[in-house]
Amino acid sequence: MADGLTTAGGTRSTPARNRWRARYRVVPWWVRITVVYVLARVLTGLMLLAFARVQAANSFTVQRPGYLSFASIWDGAWYRVIATSGYPSTLPIDPAGHVTENAWAFMPAYPFTVRGLMLLTGASFELVAVSVSLLAGWGAALVFRRLMGRFLDPARATFATVLFCVAPVSAMFQVAYAESMGLLLLLVALLLMVDRRWWAMLPVVLLLGMTRPTGLAFAFLVVLFVGAWAIRPASVRSTEPLTLRRLVPPAVVAVVSGLVGLAWPAIAWAVTGVVTAYTDTELAWRSSYIGWKELVPFTPWVQGFGWWFGQPGGTVLLVIVLAGFGAFVCMPAARRIGIELRLWGVAYLVYLLAVFFPQSSTWRILVPIAPLLGIVALPRSWVYRMAVVVAFVGLQWVWLSSTWWVDGYDWTPP
User: Fold this and answer.
1) Distance between CA atoms of 352 and 91, rounded to whole angstroms?
2) How crowded is residue 57: how many other Cβ atoms within 10 Å of its Cβ?
3) Which pLDDT belongs to residue 233?
4) How confident is the model at residue 206 (pLDDT cuts 50, 70, 90)?
5) For residue 7, what pLDDT is reported?
6) Residue 239: its pLDDT value, please?
7) What is the mean pLDDT of residues 266-278?
């Protein structure tokens, strides 16, 4: 026999492989995740640079821009405006009297953080904004691994984090967008919820609601969770009853999250004097698709699927997508990641169905349901795992090509 050894099950192992495994096990988990995150960001960075090399001059950048400039286009340009000039007190209006695209569509926590660091360091917007996203993304990866570890064994939790780092829209971790910061805060809030540290959630929920528009969705999550808690089997309720003392903390979190979800539209109203300043601004982004329409809750997805796929095919496809999502989060294997994470996926999707118009930025908007990657990470097959990683990396290229790269008159913002 060669220098390999054969186990009772017939699997060959070598001393070198055993030594590698032993060394791997003594490496702290956060070091492993940091290495994965850095390698993933280098890979995505090379993709971004490849597109930057063929980028023609446009309204955002010069021809063949550098990395920082290319990573600060699209919504990054709006965050630059906010970081340097704040929000307008007068809404821009087109000749027909409609509110046009403006800075009120974007929450203040990320650009104001960038502004503070710019004043402190004297660095450019591009450098500070991308750096904040990179660091927040790193923190999000570490918290994500901790969150997955609450439900999955270490190998699966680590693989779920690998998928998190190489996901099709993971370029968001290294561009001038608020997604990294928002995702970090969301994952911290979910981890605190899983640990039932309700009072510690309050400052996180407040900041989260001023970073990304998730306040109402998170409030709905807490309501769903309390409801699920109340209808558990009698045998479980008897050992962990839902008493008034236990109900108050999550109720406070739900109320605070709901209020912060309404705070930004109220602030926009107070500054501009227009009651519907925020919603009118959001509607401006969908006007290029379906024209100017009133916001009627739970109609945007029907309108959007009708625009993209026609009717009645669009509505049929929407029903299929929603049924597929429901089956995904309700299948027996999905229970492995806990009811909190599955309910978050449901709560966030319901929120999107109520207010969001599906367009080219849909894939980015779905970033907050990243905890559901824990379900995707369950199979142990190495063939499956490699195939998913390769598919995710390939989809990164597809996403960058179809949305981030500016190709002439481009109406598909990421």
Assistant:
1) 25
2) 11
3) 62
4) very high
5) 44
6) 59
7) 97
| The predicted structure's pLDDT at residue 13 | 56
Residue 210's φ and ψ, nearest 5 degrees, are -100, 5
Triad 348, 353, 359: Cα angle to 5°: 105
**pLDDT value at residue 3:** 42
Q: Other C-beta atoms within 10 Å of 282: how many?
A: 20
Phi, psi of 59 (to 5 degrees): -70, -15
Identify the burial level of 35 via C-beta atoms within 10 angstroms of its C-beta, where 0-12 means exposed, 13-18 middle and 19 or more buried.
exposed
Q: Which residues of 203-219 are buried (b: 16+ CB within 10 A; e: fewer)?
A: ebbbbbbbbbbbbbbbb
Q: Which residues contact 174 (CB under 8 A, 6 or more apart)?
A: 41, 44, 45, 48, 71, 130, 133, 134, 137
- Structural contact between residues 270 and 393, judged by C-beta atoms closer than 8 angstroms: no
Work out whether the CA dihedral 59, 65, 70, 72 comes out positive or negative.
negative
Q: Report how far residue 19's alpha carbon sits from residue 319's, in angstroms, rounded to the nearest whole number.
A: 52
In whole angstroms, what is the distance from residue 284 CA to residue 291 CA? 9
DSSP of 130-197:
HHHHHHHHHHHHHHHHHHHHTTS-HHHHHHHHHHHHH-TTGGGGGSSSSHHHHHHHHHHHHHHHHTT-
Q: Is the pLDDT of residue 381 over 70?
A: yes
Angle at which helix 125-149 crosses helix 109-121, to 10 degrees, equals 130
Q: Which structure tokens are listed for 363?
A: 């894939």
Long-range contacts made by residues 191-195, C-beta under 8 angstroms, separation at least 24? Answer: 191/143, 191/146, 191/147, 191/150, 193/221, 193/222, 193/225, 193/340, 194/147, 194/150, 194/338, 194/340, 195/150
Q: Is residue 339 classed exposed, middle or buried when 0-12, 13-18 and 19+ CB atoms within 10 A define those classes?
A: middle
Structure tokens at 98: 């409609």
3-state secondary structure of 297: coil
Tokens found for residue 361: 């930025």
pLDDT band at 8 (very low <50, low <70, confident <90, very high): very low
CA distances 136 to 2, 122, 142, 185, Å, are: 49, 20, 10, 9
Q: Which two tokens stand for residue 391?
A: 């598919």
Under 8 Å between Cβ of 177 and 206: no
In sequence order, the β-bridge partners of residue 5 are 13
Q: In this predicted structure, which of 333-337, 391-395, 409-413 has the lowest mean pLDDT?
A: 409-413
